[in-house]
Every structure is written in C-alpha cells, then in structure tokens.
Write a structure and sequence with these properties.
eleven-stranded antiparallel β-sheet, mainly beta, about 70% strand, Porin
C-alpha cells in the first residue's frame, strides 16, 4: 500500500512540475562594474563629490513560473569617489539585498523591478583634516534588464534611493546616491 501511495505522490509531483505549477529554481553568480552617481548638496558650494566607477559581485536565486518570477539577490559592491577642492576621497562598501519581480520576454530578455535593502559596511574617508561619513537610507529600488543566452547572462540595472543620505565631515549636507550596474553572470 505504501508503494502505491509513494508512486501516486511521485506521479502527481511530476505532473505538477511539468504543468508549470511548481516553480523552476535557478541559482547564479553576477559580477561587474558599479558606476556611482552623487548629487551632493551642502552650504559650501565649492565641494563636489565626483562620480566614480567601482565593482560588484554576488549571488542570486530565481523562482520562476513560466514568464513570471521572483529573484532575490545578495550583492557586495565597493566604490570610491573623490571630494574635489578638498583633496580627499570617500570609500563606500555596501551589501545590497534586492528582491526583484521578473518578467521574461521572448524567452531571452528578463525585465526586473523591485525594492532593494542596503547595509553600509564602510563609508568613510578623509580630506583636508576632516573625516567624512555617509549615512545611507536602508531602502531603495532597482530597475533593470538581463539577457540570458545558454547559461551566460548580461545585465544592466539602475539602483536608486527613496530619500537622501546625510553626509558628515568638513561640512554637513545631503547626498542622493544612485548606481548603474553593468554585469555578466553565470547561471547553474
């Protein structure tokens, strides 16, 4: 009797999986370029935070039901930008956890959108005797697209903040941080 129940359960599971009721699970790795754009506003107008290019790397899992899916990721990124006119720089390391909704178009292109949660691991620097520190909001958004051919993917994504960050140092001010990520990945 147990054999028949196990056989029936296996048959039902196989039927549901082939019918698309159970999600397809896929894991992958991503890495690439992280271009950071800063919009710094302070009482001292001659201070300018220059945009810079860094790198990112991380892993993702995709649960998909046909064309639709959910894609959580864990991304570490590192960036450094110069503080013009103060001869200084700020190093910014962070961990992002985007949870994206994904829609596949034509079987190759995936459009992704969703919230991203940020944890700053290092946001410090110095220039002209001042120590700089950036407090970034803990939540933002991500919008992007990815092309997957075989197991290789090429992606482009914009990450933005819902509100401005506070900057402490030579002067205090607000900074709206956004990033553009171009990456390549491998899906298992």
């Amino acid at each position: 009797m147990r054999r028949y129940i196990l056989l029936l359960a296996a048959l039902m599971l196989t039927t549901y999986a082939s019918a698309g009721i159970l999600p397809k699970l896929q894991f992958g790795l991503r890495a690439g370029m992280d271009y950071q754009v800063n919009d710094f506003k302070s009482a001292i107008e001659e201070i300018d935070l220059k945009s810079s290019t860094g790198w990112f790397g991380g892993a993702h899992a995709t649960l998909s039901w046909g064309m639709l899916g959910i894609r959580p990721e864990l991304i570490y990124s590192q960036n450094k930008f110069d503080i013009e006119s103060l001869d200084g720089s700020v190093k910014m390391n962070k961990v992002d956890l985007p949870i994206l909704l994904q829609m596949k178009l034509l079987g190759l292109v995936a459009v992704q959108v969703g919230p991203t949660f940020n944890l700053m691991t290092n946001t410090s620097g110095s220039g002209e005797g001042a120590v700089w520190d950036i407090k970034r909001p803990s939540m933002g958004y991500a919008v992007g697209a990815e092309v997957e051919i075989w197991k290789i993917s090429i992606s482009a994504r914009y990450n933005g903040s819902f509100k401005k960050s506070e900057v402490f140092g030579y002067t205090t001010g607000e900074n709206k941080i956004s990033t553009i990520q171009l990456g390549i990945g491998y899906n298992f």
